[in-house]
Here is the input.
Amino acid sequence: MPLVHSAITDVMRAFRKENGEDEVIAEAVVGADSALTRRTIKSAQIADKYGVAVIGTYSPNRTLFHAR
Here is the structure.
């Protein structure tokens, strides 16, 4: 089962080949105090700022602990 729809990987591979870049898949963790919390991927301009495609997100239903 693929992690992302094939149309997305096709576009990413075409862009990578045009620019001679390697394909990299990475995981990023956004902390609770980040400026990215409670923003959409589009409003945070992730693709424009970092040149990446987000293929998934996860947000826990509850916080396990609070720093005081």
Notes: The chain is about 30% helix and 0% strand. The chain has a mean pLDDT of 77. The helical segments are 6-19, 46-50.
